[in-house]
Amino acid sequence: MRRAFDLLGGVRTPPSPSPARSAQRVGLIAGIASYLIWGVLPLYFKTIETASPVEIVAARVVFSLALCAVLLTATRSWSSFLHVLRTPRLSLTLALASALVAANWLTYTFTVISGNTAEGSLGYFINPLISTVLGVLVLRERLSRLQWAAMALGLAAVVVLSVAYGHVPWIGLALALTFGFYGLVKNRVGREAGALQGLSVETTWLAPVALVVLLVMGAHGWLTLFSQGQGHFWLLAASGVTTAVPLLTFAAAASRLPLTTIAMLQYIAPTLMFVFAVTVFHEPMPPQRWAGFVLVWIAVVVLIVDALRQARRTRLPGV
Q1: Three-state SS across 99-132?
Q2: Entry pTM
Q3: What's the Cα-to-Cα distance from 117 to each of 42, 139, 284, rounded to whole Å?
Q4: How far apart are CA 21 and CA 256, in angstroms?
Q5: Can you give the three-state secondary structure of 193-246, one letter per residue?
């Protein structure tokens, strides 16, 4: 906790910060920026809700690829991008990642536009629980007692919310599963593909499908991209920025911050989503749903406590 206090600008910070402390401060700012952007995305999607979720995702892919091309040129990173694209193991792994992230984007967009933002926030609250389960099943990791307790609370929350919604909260589970598997697949490429190169390859794989979708929608008169004025066009075009910028700032944060700090920052986005769902979109939250969310939040607290305990055990003396 003392270390976290230092990161946030506590009184122990020296007048002339060391390079390591400066890097952590930059990382903290970048991490907060990433999750703030992801947290306010529901407000952005509400401004373009006249477009269907399929059109929004297709436009997001095309404009993200265009922005990636600009950034690859500005950073002179075309050679590293082509290396990743031409390396079968990396390229095919990122192709799988692109399918998972496209499914996640489509589910997320549908969630917001259909008035289920609260259930969408549930998906990102339970995502760490899904990632923990995947760690056990795929990576053969062992759970601590607190992690087992968090798993039990998460399962109880799903049961309670299933009763409250009258069905299994499939939207939240779909978001958690697609993003959890996406993280697992991206972990396979590790540092071999940077954030910009990885996103560029993923959108390169998705672009042909996205272009076909836009052409078919245009041929049937379903496309809103060019039919609702310049304001609507540029709002859709901004999806490239809302996709690439938080991913790049997150990469900057992940390379500078301890995993425990990243683990705590990740709850900023679903918290903002839930607040917007209740206060701005006025989505119904009867007592049974509150009960389910409270169980999820308790599970989150348990995971944070466990992460802090593990970090304290592995931290070197004097750090």
Answers
A1: HHHHHHHHHHHHHHHCCCHHHHHHHHHHHHHHHH
A2: 0.84
A3: 7, 32, 11
A4: 9
A5: CCHHHHHHHHHHHHHHHHHHHHHHHHHCCCCCCCCCHHHHHHHHHCHHHHHHHH
Token pair of 92 as six digits: 């095919």
- At 317, list the tokens: 């003396």
What is the Cα–Cα distance from 55 to 235, expressed in whole angstroms?
Answer: 13
What does the DSSP 8-state code read for residue 316?
P
Residue 27, amino acid:
G
Distance of CA 305 to the CA centre of its chain: 22
Largest Cα separation within the chain, whole Å, is 66
Mind listing the pLDDT tens digit for each residue in 195-238? 889 899 999 999 999 999 999 999 999 999 988 889 999 999 99
Task: Give 175-195 pLDDT, tens digit per residue.
Answer: 999 988 888 888 778 678 888
